[in-house]
Amino acid sequence: NLLHTSYIEHLQARQHAGWGLERSLEQLGFDVGVRLAERYSKDTPRLVKELDIMTFLCKDMWLKVFRKNADKLRTNHKGVYEIFDSRFRVLVSSVGDNENSRSRLFMPCGMMRGALFAFGINASVTAEAGESASCVFTIKVKA
Predict the structure, then answer these.
(1) How far apart (Å, rounded) are the C-alpha atoms in residues 10 and 40?
(2) Which phi and psi angles does 96 have, rounded to 5°?
(3) What distances in angstroms separate CA 127 from CA 39, 43, 57, 90, one per listed residue?
């Protein structure tokens, strides 16, 4: 969490060669997500079904990365998934600071997108911070 905060502050100060904070953090998260998905799934049976991959993401990988399971996974069975976390660790220290909360979500969104990419799923991932460090991640699978 401290490293994540320091990196955000560094990028805000330098604006990472014109890329902008959002794109820089999202790309860093994507690269990390690909590597983590490969590492954490190497000892599990090959995941093929989209729902199995999403379940792996919000249970197994979430637990290893954020030290707790996500609270809920919801889908409309048409390629849209929502992951709910009532106390998202990344947001705990920025409760009440909407701009800081928003910038802290770019990297986790990229990380989820990268993990999905490692499993062969092309998706967009967005997040909304709620009250008291709650968060909803929306994953839209692209055809």
Answers:
(1) 29
(2) 90, -10
(3) 24, 29, 15, 12
| CA gap 136, 141 in Å, rounded | 16
Q: What is the pTM of this model?
A: 0.82
Block residue for tokens 């889908």 = 75
Neighbours of 32 (CB within 10 A): 17
DSSP for 51-109, written as a single string: HHHHHHIIIIIHHHHHSS--SEEEE-SSSEEEEEETT-GGGGGGTT-HHHHHHHTHHHH
Residue 72: phi, psi to the nearest 5? Answer: -155, 145
Residue with tokens 């994953």: 139
- How do the pLDDT tens digits run along the chain, 143 residues long? 555 666 666 666 655 555 577 777 888 889 999 999 999 988 888 888 999 999 999 999 999 988 889 999 999 989 999 999 988 877 766 555 556 667 788 889 999 999 999 999 999 999 988 777 788 999 999 97
- For tokens 């928003």, what's the residue? 102
By residue count, the chain amounts to 143
